[in-house]
Amino acid sequence: MVAKIVSPSGRSRRTVGSAVPLGSVASSWIPVMPSTVGESRGPMSRMIVPPPGAGTMSRMSEPISGFDARPDYDPASEGFTPVTTDEGKLRQLVDYLAEHVSAYRDGAPVPWTGSPEEIRAARAAANDRSARLPDAIVHASMLVLGAGVDHTLPFVAFDGAACRIEDFGAGGVPVRVFVPADPTGAVVVAAHGGAWWMGDGTARDGSFGPDCAALAQRSGAVVVDVDMRLAPEHRMPAAAEDLVAAVAWARTAPIPEIAAGAAVVLWGRSSGGHAAFLAAKMLHDADADVTSLALTAPSLDLRGRSTDMLEAIFGHADATDPSVSPALGDASWLPRLHVQTGTEDDTVAGGDVVVAKLQEAGEAATMSEFLATHFVAVPAVQRERITDLARHILDATGTARVLPGEPSGDYDKDAIDRANEESWGR
């Protein structure tokens, strides 16, 4: 099969079969979705194949003369659109999930004022969708972005299966402990997301738990995943109180891989970041500060949320209350803070505000930004987030280990793109 790569300058280069450079997406062109998919444009036509990772292709053929007869040929004149950015690839992935994947598309409104039976049924359905989403993202990434790119999730890439997993009762709070194969002695207490009302059950087993295992393996810290109480049956601050109990338990836990007097990092994702923030404040007020607070896509400013939601979670609808929107309150008491945000995340707010407050005051606060929506990131970005957390944990806890490179190898998209540009004579 003959593949053709067309550079933004209009130059073209033939390659054959596997000679197409993997990952040459930054300089690749793909066709726009036509009204008739797979339309043939004459008896003498050939397949135009984008390099792996370039994205989906909908127009399946192009006349030989289209490129060969005109050295100054402009692909855009024939309806071709370049996908030259990672943002474009993320948008393709999100669009595919919205169109084809029920685990992403078919969310139902939360019955905040429903009966206990309605809440439980809705929670179970939402958890099942959440549990299926990671595998759906991998499958969609292979279809949409190409099989030549490593779409391995963190759990597999970082050998999460090598963790020893044990369930405990932490002062009456159920916790699942992930003990890495090469422990450093540090400990992370983890709070799952789920809009304060879901994220336990199958979602915790199939989505958050695997990331806890990956983080344990990557950082060397023992990760304690807390099965927090959820609203509306248990309004806030019940979840935060469960995290406080888990931190106290972790400091004296019967787990030999946790060092005596170990540094504790409190980590929360999304609404779990909100609960972790409140728990960190409770621990501070009790003179039992954690070493660091790490938050992934935290929901710290709830202004604009519905009255029904706020009342179901907090018992009132005042979104300016710092216990509801911690980003609006005092942040001077915080321990060392690390926040991870998504460039395309329009679901949550407030994490960057808290970091800015601390940095302006000269306090220890850092923020890492990743190409992601609140729910979707390509697997490579998911791995980057876990590695970023691992580096923060190692630094904050004063532990050390050799952080292995990406298991996928020394793949360097930028270097490949530079090589492609040189081969085009640019």
Automatic annotation (TrEMBL):
It comes from the Bacteria. Residues 188-370 form the Alpha/beta hydrolase fold-3 domain. GO terms for molecular function: hydrolase activity. The keyword Disulfide bond does not apply. Residues 400-426 are annotated as: Disordered. Residues 410-426 have a biased composition (Basic and acidic residues). Keywords: Hydrolase. This is Alpha/beta hydrolase fold-3 domain-containing protein. It comes from Corynebacterium xerosis.
